[in-house]
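Internal ticket - ligand job 405, beta-D-fructofuranose:
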Amino acid sequence: MNDPNGLFYYKGKYHLFFQHNPRAIDWGNMSWGHAVSTDLYNWQELPIAINCTETTGIFSGSAVVDHNNTSGFGTKENPPIVAIYTEHHNDESNQSQCLAYSVDEGLTFTKYAGNPVLNINEKNFRDPKVQWIEGQWLMTVALASDFKISFYSSPNLIEWTHLSDFGPAAEIGGVWECPDLIQFGEKWVLLVSLNPGGYQIGSGTQYFIGQWTGTEFIADDTTTRWLDYGRDNYAGVTFSNAPDDKKIFLGWMSNWHYASKVPTNPWRSAMTLPRELSLRGDRLIQTPINCPDGFPEVSFTTQEGSIKISENENRYVEIGVHNKTLFVDTSNAWNELEAPTRQEIAVGDRTLDIRVIIDRGSIELFADGGAISVTNLVFVDTHLSAIEVGEGISALAYSGLSLHA
Ligand code: FRU
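stdout (structure tokens):
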């Protein structure tokens, strides 16, 4: 699998769709796989929700609960769930936006007979993220090779009117993909994934902070802000209709630079931890949500010092602060795949809080109250790990791991 798609919450269930090849572990036959969860940790996989055809793939997109039945696909009593996805022509001649709807709470989907609903005869026009704002639907969608995010509005999800474009700005990269426009009170954050051109290599996600005027996004500035300084957090978006209007984010935990070579079988790829997003000044804050008790993790504070999460003396991840720089070093926890194995982030002269959540094959770091995130796949048996603590570490707490003598 790759990108998370169509994230929505309805009647006690989180639905996760995902870019999926039902026939192999390589990219292809793009269809929407489907899984549901009540806690965002235990997922039940369901049958394919939207299938590719011989000539087209079902690329990334979003899903909404159409509470007012604006589309007419359901009733007000039983609102339709509407998926808005990109139909990609395998001959690469066109990408357009299409609908599929469900009247059984998101279990099965029917492709809309009037597809596509938005076709501007573009080859690189994809990844629609739709939300309900001020009495109408707003679509945020990428003009990938122009490094632009386009905004469209609709009363019914079927007829779309172009409002404005944003970009190019800050990091350009190879293509812009998978946008999401998220409201935090008066401020709005625009997520833009780009590939290649990430923080160090391959895929990465940047964000802009600004205003949504009702017709256009105006960024406060065009400074580069990375959502994640690791290699493995791409194409992430937020759930729609989440409880208490929480902004819950999931990313794809891999990188196009090596995704097709990661040696796992019979599956390939996972999502990041679910993270609640909030805004603190000009920084997006990521906080893991619902993390089960006893899940392997370690937290500490330091101004100069490091810890190791180690399977044995040769296989470990080292994390700490050195010379006012936060670092995550996976050079002894990686294989032959080409990828940078040390991330460094300038943090200045202060004591930093660091929390690391460890799963089999991945580590997700949150520092400075969640303003810094570093997500990496690792090839070390992290679930068998012990922590080794160096000088300069305080407030150490851990669970699900042992402490090295
Ligand atoms: C991002 C992406 C999307 C596209 C999908 C295809 O990873 O390239 O832009 O819709 O993957 O699988």
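Auto-summary: The longest strand covers residues 56-65. Residues 22 and 166 are 35 Å apart (CA to CA).
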